[in-house]
Amino acid sequence: ALTRNLVCLGVVGLLALAAAWIGVELFIVRHMQALVQAARRLSTGDLSTRTGLPHGPGELQQLAAAFDEMAASLEKHEMQQRLEEDLRRHNEALEEENRRIREVNQLKSEFVSLVSHELRTPLTAISGYLDLLLEAQGGQSPAKRQELLGIVKRNAERLVKLIDDLLDLSRLESGKVELNI
């Protein structure tokens, strides 16, 4: 009877050890391996990694939940940094475009100022020479009148050229013509 009880006790002991080993394997070792694998993937830069373990009241389940929250937080932070970098690059591009627009507006203002001055000069000359021609129509020689008319014609042609330039600028601004440099 003693031998039978010892054998039964030995079998029960072995069954208990096997059950404990299987329980440890299922509930502790596999959870630890899942945590270790997730930590390795996270360390390689895979911020989308999660443990895949259920969250619950146990210590390993709480550790898995904390790990998953940390990975989600890191992923969110990385995404935010990427968005901020994209926004910074976009802002730099907009600032460069604004700088170019200011330069073009400055050039346009200088052009308009120059053209208004250049338009006034030939108009004054044309007006003055026409006054001379009208006042001294009978007192000047035909050669002198031809010279004065030539000056008036050249200044009129200058005005036409300046007005054409202004029209070209107007067409560029309205988008009817594209500038090919």
How does this model look, in words?
By secondary structure, the protein is mainly alpha-helical. The protein contains 3 helices and no strands. The protein has helices at residues 2-43, 59-135, 142-174. The longest helix has 77 residues, at 59-135. The chain is rod-shaped. The termini are far apart.
Note the main attributes of this structure:
181 residues, mainly alpha, rod-shaped
Mean pLDDT: 84
- How many angstroms separate the termini? 111 Å
Assembly form of the protein:
single chain
Rg calc: 46 Å
What is the overall number of helices?
3
Order of helices and strands: HHH
Topology:
Layout: H1 2-43, H2 59-135, H3 142-174
Summarize the structure.
It contains three helices and no strands. The protein is mainly alpha-helical.
